[in-house]
Amino acid sequence: MLKLNAELPRALGLWFSHHARYMPWRAEPTAYRVWVSEIMLQQTQVVTVIPYFERFLKRFPSVEKLARADEEDVLSMWSGLGYYSRARNLHKAARVIAESGMPTTRTEWLELPGVGEYTAGAVCSIALNLVEPILDGNVERVLSRFHRVGVGKKGLAGFKLRLWGLSRQWVEVGAAAGVEPRALNQALMELGALVCEPRAPRCASCPLRASCGAFRAGVVDRFPPVVKRAKVIDVSETVHLFFCEGRVLVQKREKGQWRAGLWDLPLAVPSWVKKLRPQSAGEEIHTQHIVTHHRIKRTTRVWKLARASGPAPAGYAWVTPLKPELATGAAFGKCVRKALATLSLKGGPKLVS
Ligand code: SF4
Asked: Closest ligand 1 atom to the C-alpha of 208?
Protein backbone atom coordinates (compact mmCIF):
# COMPACT_ATOMS: atom_id res chain seq x y z
CA MET A 1 0.00 0.00 0.00
CA LEU A 2 1.34 3.38 -1.03
CA LYS A 3 2.63 5.58 1.77
CA LEU A 4 1.44 9.15 1.52
CA ASN A 5 4.03 11.86 1.24
CA ALA A 6 3.57 15.62 1.46
CA GLU A 7 3.65 16.04 -2.33
CA LEU A 8 0.37 14.21 -2.94
CA PRO A 9 -1.89 16.45 -0.82
CA ARG A 10 -0.03 19.47 -2.16
CA ALA A 11 -0.64 18.41 -5.77
CA LEU A 12 -4.30 17.80 -4.94
CA GLY A 13 -4.65 21.14 -3.14
CA LEU A 14 -3.08 22.96 -6.09
CA TRP A 15 -5.42 21.22 -8.53
CA PHE A 16 -8.40 22.22 -6.38
CA SER A 17 -7.32 25.88 -6.28
CA HIS A 18 -7.63 25.92 -10.10
CA HIS A 19 -10.67 23.69 -10.62
CA ALA A 20 -13.04 24.23 -7.68
CA ARG A 21 -16.57 24.92 -8.91
CA TYR A 22 -18.53 27.85 -7.55
CA MET A 23 -20.95 26.82 -4.83
CA PRO A 24 -22.71 29.43 -2.68
CA TRP A 25 -21.74 27.73 0.60
CA ARG A 26 -18.09 27.76 -0.47
CA ALA A 27 -18.17 31.54 -0.86
CA GLU A 28 -19.06 31.95 2.82
CA PRO A 29 -18.37 28.66 4.62
CA THR A 30 -19.97 29.26 8.03
CA ALA A 31 -20.93 26.20 10.08
CA TYR A 32 -24.65 26.87 9.51
CA ARG A 33 -24.37 27.25 5.74
CA VAL A 34 -22.06 24.25 5.30
CA TRP A 35 -24.28 22.11 7.49
CA VAL A 36 -27.46 23.02 5.56
CA SER A 37 -25.69 22.42 2.24
CA GLU A 38 -24.36 19.03 3.33
CA ILE A 39 -27.79 17.87 4.46
CA MET A 40 -29.30 19.00 1.14
CA LEU A 41 -26.51 17.34 -0.83
CA GLN A 42 -27.25 13.90 0.61
CA GLN A 43 -28.67 11.91 -2.32
CA THR A 44 -29.00 15.10 -4.38
CA GLN A 45 -26.75 16.69 -7.00
CA VAL A 46 -25.05 20.05 -6.58
CA VAL A 47 -26.89 21.72 -9.49
CA THR A 48 -30.23 20.70 -8.05
CA VAL A 49 -29.31 21.84 -4.55
CA ILE A 50 -28.03 25.37 -5.36
CA PRO A 51 -31.44 27.08 -5.96
CA TYR A 52 -32.98 25.28 -2.97
CA PHE A 53 -30.04 26.31 -0.79
CA GLU A 54 -30.33 29.95 -1.82
CA ARG A 55 -34.07 30.02 -1.21
CA PHE A 56 -33.72 28.25 2.14
CA LEU A 57 -30.99 30.62 3.35
CA LYS A 58 -33.00 33.63 2.25
CA ARG A 59 -35.94 32.40 4.30
CA PHE A 60 -33.87 31.14 7.25
CA PRO A 61 -30.65 33.19 7.23
CA SER A 62 -29.56 31.97 10.68
CA VAL A 63 -29.89 28.88 12.79
CA GLU A 64 -32.03 30.90 15.24
CA LYS A 65 -34.49 31.80 12.47
CA LEU A 66 -34.66 28.16 11.45
CA ALA A 67 -35.20 27.07 15.06
CA ARG A 68 -38.13 29.48 15.44
CA ALA A 69 -39.83 28.43 12.17
CA ASP A 70 -42.90 26.18 11.96
CA GLU A 71 -42.17 22.68 10.71
CA GLU A 72 -44.62 23.25 7.89
CA ASP A 73 -42.70 26.29 6.71
CA VAL A 74 -39.43 24.31 6.76
CA LEU A 75 -40.99 21.43 4.83
CA SER A 76 -42.44 23.82 2.30
CA MET A 77 -38.97 25.30 1.61
CA TRP A 78 -37.75 21.72 1.18
CA SER A 79 -40.59 20.75 -1.11
CA GLY A 80 -39.25 19.07 -4.24
CA LEU A 81 -35.92 17.99 -2.72
CA GLY A 82 -37.41 14.78 -1.31
CA TYR A 83 -36.16 12.73 1.66
CA TYR A 84 -38.14 14.96 4.03
CA SER A 85 -36.73 13.35 7.17
CA ARG A 86 -33.59 15.38 6.38
CA ALA A 87 -35.57 18.62 6.74
CA ARG A 88 -37.28 17.47 9.93
CA ASN A 89 -33.96 16.51 11.52
CA LEU A 90 -32.35 19.75 10.39
CA HIS A 91 -35.16 21.64 12.07
CA LYS A 92 -34.91 19.59 15.28
CA ALA A 93 -31.13 20.06 15.36
CA ALA A 94 -31.51 23.83 14.83
CA ARG A 95 -33.64 23.96 17.96
CA VAL A 96 -30.94 22.12 19.92
CA ILE A 97 -28.26 24.51 18.60
CA ALA A 98 -30.38 27.58 19.39
CA GLU A 99 -30.48 26.35 23.01
CA SER A 100 -26.94 25.12 23.51
CA GLY A 101 -24.82 26.85 20.85
CA MET A 102 -23.12 25.76 17.64
CA PRO A 103 -21.06 22.55 18.13
CA THR A 104 -17.32 22.97 17.80
CA THR A 105 -16.11 19.36 17.66
CA ARG A 106 -16.92 16.24 15.66
CA THR A 107 -18.28 14.52 18.77
CA GLU A 108 -20.66 17.40 19.46
CA TRP A 109 -21.88 17.47 15.85
CA LEU A 110 -22.55 13.73 15.99
CA GLU A 111 -24.96 14.26 18.87
CA LEU A 112 -27.36 16.23 16.68
CA PRO A 113 -30.33 14.59 14.92
CA GLY A 114 -29.59 13.72 11.30
CA VAL A 115 -25.83 14.24 11.60
CA GLY A 116 -23.76 11.18 10.76
CA GLU A 117 -20.04 10.59 10.37
CA TYR A 118 -19.90 12.14 6.92
CA THR A 119 -21.79 15.35 7.77
CA ALA A 120 -19.83 15.82 11.01
CA GLY A 121 -16.54 15.44 9.13
CA ALA A 122 -17.65 17.79 6.36
CA VAL A 123 -18.81 20.58 8.67
CA CYS A 124 -15.79 20.25 10.96
CA SER A 125 -13.30 20.35 8.10
CA ILE A 126 -14.96 22.70 5.61
CA ALA A 127 -16.45 25.23 8.03
CA LEU A 128 -14.22 24.90 11.10
CA ASN A 129 -11.04 23.82 9.26
CA LEU A 130 -10.46 21.01 11.76
CA VAL A 131 -8.29 18.03 10.83
CA GLU A 132 -11.21 15.62 10.41
CA PRO A 133 -11.80 13.06 7.63
CA ILE A 134 -14.78 12.74 5.29
CA LEU A 135 -16.06 9.88 3.18
CA ASP A 136 -18.84 10.31 0.65
CA GLY A 137 -19.35 8.40 -2.60
CA ASN A 138 -16.86 10.58 -4.48
CA VAL A 139 -14.10 10.30 -1.88
CA GLU A 140 -14.76 6.58 -1.55
CA ARG A 141 -14.17 6.11 -5.28
CA VAL A 142 -10.96 8.16 -5.36
CA LEU A 143 -9.45 6.44 -2.32
CA SER A 144 -10.56 2.97 -3.34
CA ARG A 145 -8.88 3.41 -6.74
CA PHE A 146 -5.84 5.30 -5.57
CA HIS A 147 -5.03 2.79 -2.80
CA ARG A 148 -6.56 -0.22 -4.59
CA VAL A 149 -8.86 -1.05 -1.71
CA GLY A 150 -11.50 -3.69 -2.37
CA VAL A 151 -13.95 -5.57 -0.19
CA GLY A 152 -11.89 -8.09 1.72
CA LYS A 153 -12.70 -10.71 4.32
CA LYS A 154 -14.22 -8.08 6.59
CA GLY A 155 -16.90 -7.26 4.03
CA LEU A 156 -18.40 -3.86 3.29
CA ALA A 157 -18.03 -2.62 6.87
CA GLY A 158 -14.30 -3.43 6.78
CA PHE A 159 -13.97 -1.71 3.38
CA LYS A 160 -15.56 1.49 4.70
CA LEU A 161 -13.46 1.41 7.86
CA ARG A 162 -10.30 1.07 5.79
CA LEU A 163 -11.30 4.06 3.66
CA TRP A 164 -12.15 6.18 6.69
CA GLY A 165 -8.64 5.45 7.97
CA LEU A 166 -7.12 6.48 4.64
CA SER A 167 -9.22 9.63 4.51
CA ARG A 168 -7.88 10.53 7.95
CA GLN A 169 -4.31 9.94 6.72
CA TRP A 170 -4.87 12.28 3.77
CA VAL A 171 -6.18 15.12 5.88
CA GLU A 172 -3.46 14.67 8.51
CA VAL A 173 -0.60 14.45 6.02
CA GLY A 174 -2.13 17.39 4.16
CA ALA A 175 -2.32 19.54 7.29
CA ALA A 176 1.32 18.74 8.13
CA ALA A 177 2.26 19.71 4.55
CA GLY A 178 0.44 23.05 4.78
CA VAL A 179 -2.78 22.07 2.95
CA GLU A 180 -5.79 23.21 4.95
CA PRO A 181 -8.30 20.49 5.88
CA ARG A 182 -11.11 22.45 4.20
CA ALA A 183 -9.14 22.52 0.93
CA LEU A 184 -7.93 18.92 1.12
CA ASN A 185 -11.33 17.37 1.83
CA GLN A 186 -13.17 19.43 -0.75
CA ALA A 187 -10.41 18.62 -3.25
CA LEU A 188 -10.95 14.88 -2.71
CA MET A 189 -14.69 15.32 -3.23
CA GLU A 190 -14.23 17.54 -6.27
CA LEU A 191 -11.72 15.17 -7.84
CA GLY A 192 -14.25 12.35 -7.50
CA ALA A 193 -17.02 14.49 -9.01
CA LEU A 194 -15.08 16.00 -11.92
CA VAL A 195 -12.20 13.64 -12.79
CA CYS A 196 -12.35 10.28 -11.03
CA GLU A 197 -15.86 9.72 -12.35
CA PRO A 198 -17.70 6.43 -11.83
CA ARG A 199 -17.82 5.12 -15.40
CA ALA A 200 -15.23 7.04 -17.36
CA PRO A 201 -12.51 8.40 -15.08
CA ARG A 202 -10.38 11.02 -16.81
CA CYS A 203 -7.06 9.73 -15.53
CA ALA A 204 -5.10 11.70 -18.14
CA SER A 205 -6.15 14.92 -16.38
CA CYS A 206 -5.73 13.62 -12.84
CA PRO A 207 -3.14 15.26 -10.57
CA LEU A 208 -2.66 11.93 -8.73
CA ARG A 209 -2.20 9.60 -11.69
CA ALA A 210 1.56 9.10 -11.30
CA SER A 211 0.97 7.49 -7.89
CA CYS A 212 -2.52 6.03 -8.35
CA GLY A 213 -2.46 2.30 -7.64
CA ALA A 214 -5.36 1.33 -9.90
CA PHE A 215 -4.18 3.51 -12.78
CA ARG A 216 -0.62 2.22 -12.64
CA ALA A 217 -1.83 -1.38 -12.59
CA GLY A 218 -4.41 -0.75 -15.35
CA VAL A 219 -7.27 -1.95 -13.14
CA VAL A 220 -9.25 1.26 -12.60
CA ASP A 221 -12.47 -0.47 -13.68
CA ARG A 222 -12.20 -2.94 -10.78
CA PHE A 223 -12.48 -0.22 -8.14
CA PRO A 224 -14.52 0.59 -6.14
CA PRO A 225 -16.10 -2.88 -5.82
CA VAL A 226 -19.69 -3.20 -7.00
CA VAL A 227 -22.09 -3.36 -4.08
CA LYS A 228 -25.57 -4.79 -4.54
CA ARG A 229 -28.32 -2.19 -4.33
CA ALA A 230 -31.25 -2.52 -1.94
CA LYS A 231 -34.22 -4.27 -3.52
CA VAL A 232 -36.94 -1.98 -4.83
CA ILE A 233 -40.21 -2.41 -2.92
CA ASP A 234 -43.48 -1.84 -4.78
CA VAL A 235 -46.09 0.23 -3.00
CA SER A 236 -49.55 0.58 -4.55
CA GLU A 237 -51.96 3.26 -3.44
CA THR A 238 -55.15 4.94 -4.58
CA VAL A 239 -55.65 8.66 -4.05
CA HIS A 240 -58.47 11.06 -4.93
CA LEU A 241 -58.08 14.26 -6.85
CA PHE A 242 -60.92 16.72 -6.30
CA PHE A 243 -61.11 19.71 -8.64
CA CYS A 244 -63.12 22.69 -7.50
CA GLU A 245 -63.08 26.24 -8.84
CA GLY A 246 -59.60 25.76 -10.33
CA ARG A 247 -58.09 24.28 -7.17
CA VAL A 248 -57.38 20.80 -5.85
CA LEU A 249 -57.90 19.37 -2.40
CA VAL A 250 -54.91 18.22 -0.37
CA GLN A 251 -54.75 16.45 2.97
CA LYS A 252 -51.93 16.55 5.50
CA ARG A 253 -50.40 13.15 6.20
CA GLU A 254 -50.63 12.50 9.92
CA LYS A 255 -47.98 11.46 12.41
CA GLY A 256 -47.20 7.79 12.06
CA GLN A 257 -48.21 7.80 8.38
CA TRP A 258 -45.66 7.57 5.60
CA ARG A 259 -44.50 11.08 4.57
CA ALA A 260 -45.94 12.53 7.79
CA GLY A 261 -46.31 16.31 7.77
CA LEU A 262 -46.49 16.55 3.96
CA TRP A 263 -49.60 17.46 2.03
CA ASP A 264 -50.84 15.11 -0.62
CA LEU A 265 -54.04 14.01 -2.31
CA PRO A 266 -56.55 12.35 0.08
CA LEU A 267 -56.31 8.57 0.38
CA ALA A 268 -60.11 8.28 0.67
CA VAL A 269 -63.17 10.38 -0.11
CA PRO A 270 -63.62 12.48 3.07
CA SER A 271 -67.13 12.38 4.57
CA TRP A 272 -67.48 16.20 4.36
CA VAL A 273 -66.68 16.00 0.63
CA LYS A 274 -69.32 13.31 0.11
CA LYS A 275 -71.92 15.83 1.32
CA LEU A 276 -70.84 18.19 -1.47
CA ARG A 277 -71.81 15.52 -4.00
CA PRO A 278 -68.61 15.11 -6.01
CA GLN A 279 -69.02 13.95 -9.59
CA SER A 280 -66.65 11.38 -10.93
CA ALA A 281 -64.78 12.71 -13.96
CA GLY A 282 -64.58 9.08 -15.09
CA GLU A 283 -60.80 9.29 -15.08
CA GLU A 284 -58.17 7.13 -13.45
CA ILE A 285 -54.65 8.41 -13.75
CA HIS A 286 -51.82 5.91 -13.36
CA THR A 287 -48.39 7.12 -12.35
CA GLN A 288 -45.21 5.57 -11.06
CA HIS A 289 -42.65 7.29 -8.90
CA ILE A 290 -39.44 6.14 -7.22
CA VAL A 291 -38.71 7.42 -3.71
CA THR A 292 -35.50 5.97 -2.22
CA HIS A 293 -36.07 2.24 -2.74
CA HIS A 294 -39.85 2.40 -2.99
CA ARG A 295 -41.61 2.30 -6.34
CA ILE A 296 -44.96 4.00 -5.75
CA LYS A 297 -47.61 2.88 -8.19
CA ARG A 298 -50.41 5.32 -7.81
CA THR A 299 -53.96 5.28 -9.11
CA THR A 300 -55.56 8.69 -8.96
CA ARG A 301 -59.35 8.93 -9.20
CA VAL A 302 -60.52 12.29 -10.53
CA TRP A 303 -63.60 14.09 -9.22
CA LYS A 304 -65.25 17.44 -9.87
CA LEU A 305 -66.97 19.57 -7.28
CA ALA A 306 -69.27 22.44 -8.24
CA ARG A 307 -68.30 24.52 -5.19
CA ALA A 308 -66.21 24.17 -2.07
CA SER A 309 -68.73 25.78 0.31
CA GLY A 310 -66.22 27.62 2.49
CA PRO A 311 -62.73 26.78 3.64
CA ALA A 312 -61.64 23.15 4.04
CA PRO A 313 -61.71 21.66 7.57
CA ALA A 314 -58.50 21.22 9.63
CA GLY A 315 -56.05 18.85 8.00
CA TYR A 316 -57.32 19.71 4.48
CA ALA A 317 -56.62 22.64 2.15
CA TRP A 318 -57.59 23.81 -1.32
CA VAL A 319 -54.44 24.67 -3.30
CA THR A 320 -53.47 25.95 -6.69
CA PRO A 321 -52.31 22.72 -8.30
CA LEU A 322 -49.43 23.98 -10.42
CA LYS A 323 -47.72 25.88 -7.62
CA PRO A 324 -48.84 24.29 -4.36
CA GLU A 325 -48.11 26.71 -1.52
CA LEU A 326 -47.80 23.82 0.94
CA ALA A 327 -45.10 21.14 1.21
CA THR A 328 -46.34 18.39 -1.06
CA GLY A 329 -44.62 15.11 -1.83
CA ALA A 330 -42.97 14.61 -5.20
CA ALA A 331 -45.64 12.06 -6.21
CA PHE A 332 -48.25 14.83 -5.89
CA GLY A 333 -46.68 16.92 -8.66
CA LYS A 334 -46.38 13.97 -11.01
CA CYS A 335 -49.95 12.74 -10.79
CA VAL A 336 -51.44 16.24 -10.74
CA ARG A 337 -49.49 17.23 -13.86
CA LYS A 338 -50.62 14.06 -15.59
CA ALA A 339 -54.22 14.66 -14.55
CA LEU A 340 -54.05 18.23 -15.87
CA ALA A 341 -52.64 17.09 -19.19
CA THR A 342 -55.28 14.38 -19.59
CA LEU A 343 -58.17 16.61 -18.63
CA SER A 344 -57.16 19.59 -20.71
CA LEU A 345 -56.99 17.30 -23.75
CA LYS A 346 -60.59 16.38 -23.05
CA GLY A 347 -61.73 19.95 -22.40
CA GLY A 348 -61.78 19.34 -18.65
CA PRO A 349 -62.05 21.91 -15.87
CA LYS A 350 -60.04 25.10 -16.18
CA LEU A 351 -57.38 25.44 -13.50
CA VAL A 352 -55.71 28.38 -11.84
CA SER A 353 -51.96 28.48 -12.64
S1 SF4 B 1 -5.61 8.34 -11.80
FE2 SF4 B 1 -7.64 7.83 -12.49
S3 SF4 B 1 -8.35 6.26 -11.09
FE4 SF4 B 1 -6.59 7.21 -10.13
S5 SF4 B 1 -7.45 8.78 -8.81
FE6 SF4 B 1 -6.97 9.74 -10.77
S7 SF4 B 1 -8.85 9.63 -11.99
FE8 SF4 B 1 -9.05 8.21 -10.26
From this structure: 6
